[in-house]
Amino acid sequence: MSESGHGDNCTNWTLAQARPTMDRFLARYRNSGNIRASCKAADVSRSTIYYWRDKYVTFARQMKDAKEDAVDALDLEAWRRATDGASDRLLMFLLKAHKPEVYNPVQNVRHEGTGKDGAIPIITEVIVQIPGDDGADDAMDDE
């Protein structure tokens, strides 16, 4: 028996049989962004969810959309807290993890081609300062 109580037979279900469980999973995932909690709410194992994601293109797209909805909710909360003057380091860590292209202050840039002397340049690290971020929050402290 798996952690879900369904055993291993979930992967043998037809799409019609799996759909209600998929929908319960997606509803929770959309609101939490957490695979484990969503599996528990839908009473299905993580391996079954990944099996369905790999087997059904539509379910894979729905999982991606649900995760984007969860991240959008974080983004909205960050905006609300920023405009209210509040600060939340945990929220920033979550945003950096889910939207690194927007919130991660370090980007790697690769220079293609050769230098004047024929040497091949290496990857150069470029630090991008986020407006209003003085870097002081990057150090861990005992608050």
Model description:
The chain has 143 residues and is mainly α. The chain has one domain (9-127): Arc Repressor Mutant, subunit A (Orthogonal Bundle), CATH 1.10.10. Helices cover 55% and strands 6% of the residues. It contains six helices and two strands, in the order H-H-H-H-H-H-E-E. The chain has helices at 15-32, 35-42, 46-55, 57-84, 89-98, 100-103; strands at 106-109, 124-127. Strands 1-2 form a two-stranded antiparallel ribbon. It is flat. The chain starts with 14 loop residues before the first helix and ends in a 16-residue tail after the last strand. The model is unreliable at 123-129 and 135-143 (pLDDT under 50).
* Gyration radius over CA: 21 Å
CATH class: Mainly Alpha
Q: Helix segment count?
A: 6
Low-confidence stretches: 123-129, 135-143
Overall shape: flat
What CATH calls the topology is Arc Repressor Mutant, subunit A
In spatial order, strands of the major sheet run: 1-2
Order of helices and strands: HHHHHHEE
Beta content: 5-15%
Count of discrete structural domains: 1
Structural class: mainly alpha
Helix content: 40-55%
Largest sheet features: 2 strands, antiparallel
Taking the alpha carbons of the first and last residues, their distance comes to: 44 Å
Q: What is the count of β-strands?
A: 2
State mean pLDDT (0 to 100 scale): 77
- Return the CATH architecture: Orthogonal Bundle
